[in-house]
Amino acid sequence: MFKPRLKRLDTLFTGAPVYFLTACTDGRRALLANVGVHDALIRYTQEARNHSVLAGRYVLMPDHVHLFAAFGSASPSLAEWMKGLKAVVARHLKSCQVNAPFWQERFFDHVMRSAESYEQKWLYVRDNPVRAGLVANWSDWPYQGEINPLTL
């Protein structure tokens, strides 16, 4: 008769929580796994440090990007930061005469709750290129890495 209540979080997040972020291309078009987009992503995430955002590990797949990032109290909002990332990549794609639209309107975000879940999530994400049949070993995928080490 009554709906069950949502479980309360065991941890209250303060400071700079680490988010797991995923953004997909419009129509899941294979636009992202190339040197130019990779360079644009690296430049944007390195510059983010000047705005209290630390980008961590990432994997750039042909039609989506997975990224871990920590946002400090002086950071832009998560939505503003992701809008900026999408804009930087879109600008590069436009310069290559790729037709818009480039991105799905929304993105996925999840707050990481512990070091264990961060590591588990990373192991799953880093193997995406292997599961997709793009490489035999995750370390052979050229469009992945770590901008800043993040800890929970």
- The backbone outline, from C-alpha atoms, is globular
The oligomerization state is: single chain
- Rounded mean pLDDT score: 90
Kindly provide the radius of gyration, computed on alpha-carbon positions and rounded to a whole number of angstroms. 16 Å
Helix content bin: 25-40%
Query: What is the spatial order of strands in the main beta sheet?
Result: 4-1-3-2-5
Q: N-to-C SSE series?
A: EHEEHEHHE
Folded structure, characterized:
The protein has a five-stranded antiparallel β-sheet with strand order 4-1-3-2-5, with helices on both faces. Helix 1 runs antiparallel to helix 2 (78-95). It is 32% helix and 20% strand. By secondary structure, the protein is α+β, with helices and mostly antiparallel strands. It has four helices and five strands. The chain has helices at 35-48, 78-95, 115-126, 128-131; strands at residues 18-24, 53-60, 64-71, 108-111, 144-146. Residues 8-13 have low confidence and may be disordered.
